[in-house]
Amino acid sequence: MTTEEKLQKYQDWLFKCSAYHMALNIIDIDKQTVAPTAGASYRDERSAFLAGELFSLETDLEIVALLKDLQEDPKGRRGKISVPSDFTISRLWIPFAFPRRSL
């Protein structure tokens, strides 16, 4: 995979994660303001599901490897789109001792 393809995959991942964050934030604001209490259980189940999906995205070993490759790639750092300089793989890394649940 070329550096440009890696950067595009990184941008796609950022977009997908930001969409989940936005949805969860909107649901949270809705819960704090005008949401009917009768639907709390329904919203909470869906919010928990979305949060789990986001967690899976952010801890995916494939994206961890991609980000590590981009950090080590000189083109990835100097390109038009780059991995933030303050990014550390440890922010995403989940030890193998914690099994990932699949749906």
Question: Would you mind describing this structure in some detail?
Answer:
This protein is mainly α. The protein has 4 helices and no strands. Helix 1 packs antiparallel against helix 2 (40-58). The longest helix has 30 residues, at 3-32. Mean pLDDT is 78; it is low at 93-100.
Strand residue content: under 5%
What is the averaged pLDDT score?
A: 78
The helix count comes to: 4
Q: Alpha-carbon distance between the termini?
A: 29 Å
Structural shape: elongated
Largest sheet: none
Radius of gyration, in angstroms, nearest whole number: 17 Å
- Stretches where pLDDT is under 50 for at least 5 consecutive residues are 93-100
* Structural class computed from helices and strand pairing: mainly alpha
Topology, number of strands: 0
Helix content: 55-70%
- Elements, N to C (H/E): HHHH
Layout of strands and helices, then pairs:
Elements: H1 3-32, H2 40-58, H3 61-72, H4 74-78
Quick gist of this model?
By secondary structure, the chain is mostly helical.
